[in-house]
Amino acid sequence: MMMIREWGRFGLRFRMGLVVSALVAMPGWASAQNADSKADNPGDDRGVKSMAGGILPLEKFGGEVTERGYLLGDWGGLRTDLAKKGIRFRGSLTPVFQSVVDGGTEETSAFGQSGDFWSALDLHRMGVMRGGLLVMRAEWDTGRTVNNKAGTLMAPSFNALIPVSGEAGRDIFSLTSLYYTQFLGERFGVWFGRTDTFHNANLNEFTGLNPQVGKTQFQNLALTAIPVMTVTQPYVTSLGAGVFARPTDNWELAAMVMDSRESSLTDGLGDFGRDWNSFFTAAYRYRIGDLPGRQMVGFSYSWNGDYTKLDGSQLSNIVRGVPLRSEEETWAVIYSGFQYIQVFDGDTSKPINLKDGRADHRGWGVFLLAGLADEDTNPVQWSLAGGIGVRGLLPSRPNDEFGIGYFVIDIKDDVVANIIGLKSTEQGAEIYYDFEVLPSVHITADLQVIDPGLAASDTTVILGLRTNITF
Predict the structure, then answer these.
(1) CB within 8 Å of 220: residues ≥ 6 apart
(2) Residue 379 has what pLDDT?
(3) Which domain holds residue 217?
(4) At 401, which CATH number?
């Protein structure tokens, strides 16, 4: 039964803990605006800026409610004054309603909501430490989710998984980030501390792989993550350090080392360094004609761990009561890319901000995600996802977004997988339409159709409605 329990743990990771695979490209650290969202480098296509005034660029908080990106505005000028002094903060709330209307393990509906409070001290702008930035993020999740009723390995609601993997369906509060970044120049720096891997994610214009992951664009985990990363990376929050560099305007390089154990509900210091994960990425921005695109490859390697060896011969060990064999090392390789195909308004000169969680151009493009993993230790042998993203599909609704995506994961096929009822693949499609009510308020209608990887589950159809409010 030990091997079956191990596969059950992997199933739990698929359903509840794949949040980690949002950490598929640490080049996000390579931007001078490491902290994410609207505070991160709006209007800078290169991700490199002069830090003469500060690391985080000043932005507009005020204006009419129909124009500003923050619902609560400038607080009579207070937020602008604080920003000029290097103090930044914001909050967001994301209610999600989903219903399993067909298939799954139970036809049911659920409502939950998550929120976060992000703050940063721009020590450079404050005159305390040249090139210094301190970031803190607290997050919470309440309510219920259909993730455990969909009968799928890939959770249909990424948002319901955070801030703590494996804890869906209960009220959670966590300090998910507290890290320090030191820029040693405009193109090079280091960071260390406690970080939430899913908010320092791969930057992709159309997939949801960005600091707004789970709150904008796609909702299914397979379209907001690369599943082969499950085994090698910490689930959500962990302690670590890294370096980043931007040797040219187009190249982004990064490397990091982290404790490979998730520690959302602890300080992460217990048995710190017992096992490790390293991650290396290289990304290249380019233009085909005037149309922007980006390609990224990454390599994840974990060592000094205890990864169950997945092969059919382990069944005899279960029968004989012999301890299961394990490996100390595992690895995964990933790819992520996007390319604009058309810009509707013809303005291809507008800079790309990959950290705002939305398509920057009014136009459409394609994306592709892929991964390959160590077959000896990872139940997902390979994964593939792709699709189309559009902004301004309707001329009368220039800031609405639309997306359609397809994914497939290949599940290790052996006697144990057959015993516990796993198919050889799970695949599905998702389509969404995001309505802009105000720049600070968006409502997303969502449809998912999934052929589950669990043999006991029929084709699952899920309808959803999500709201995202930025304060």
Answers:
(1) 154, 155, 156, 158, 405, 407, 428, 430, 448, 450
(2) 80
(3) 2-470
(4) 2.40.160.180
